Amino acid sequence: DVVMTQSPLSLPVTLGQPASISCRSSQSIVYSDGNIYLNWFQQRPGQSPRRLIYKISNRDSGVPDRFSGSGSGTDFTLKISRVEAEDVGVYYCMQGTHWPWTFGQGTAVEIK
Amino acid sequence: EVQLVESGGVLVQPGGSLRLSCAASGFTFTTYWMTWLRQAPGKGLEWVAYINQYGSETEYVDSVRGRFTISRDNARNSLYLQMNSLRAEDTAIYYCAGDPQPRIIGAWGQGTLVTVSS
User: Fold this and answer.
1) DSSP for residue A60
2) B47 interaction partners in chain A (CB closer than 8 Å)
3) Which residues of A touch B108 (CB under 8 A)?
4) Exposed end of chain A (fewer CB within 10 Å): N or C?
5) Distance between A37 CA and the closest CA of chain B, angstroms
6) Interface membership of B103 toward A (CB under 8 Å)
7) Using an 8 Å Cβ cutoff, are A92 and A26 in contact?
8) Are B45 and A92 a contacting pair, CB within 8 Å?
9) Quick one: average pLDDT of A12-31?
């Protein structure tokens, strides 16, 4: 199985400051159609996960533009330009290229 | 608005069986790939199974293959997960999720809790 490794696992951030989460795949996640199915999800406390970003950098409808995704090869990043209180939660990267699709361990974002 | 509502989660004894259901509304169900995922208490996320729009293609994670069966009824806009030979390690919140594309699953339900314990 493809192992997705996130860092850090805990991220205390000051309101209004930027935050960055790294995600690395244990092997190439380029699918046969040429796409890289690397997605990011947010799970707020007590809620089900919500997709933020799909295929590395495509932001979902309704997701604030302070969230952005980037990366290539086996290294990917989710950035929050200015953290707000509603951003508290756990963030997961996920690869949808190789079955079983797999998630990273999650990064808990909290406000300092 | 896309809505997915899971049901069927209960306390069941090890070795028992359970059928989870997911009612879909707000979109054309026949255009969506559908999946089940789970999250053990306080743990991360794990894909369990997927099924294509027509029900002709399914896949399972190794830990449930041979014990769980994913199916769908397009006439009823419903997704199912038949779970047999349940083990303590199957205890989790089970989420129904779907998308028109299979590898970027974007719509999620609220989940239903399955507890396997004697």
Assistant:
1) P
2) 100-102
3) 48-51
4) C
5) 6
6) yes
7) no
8) yes
9) 97
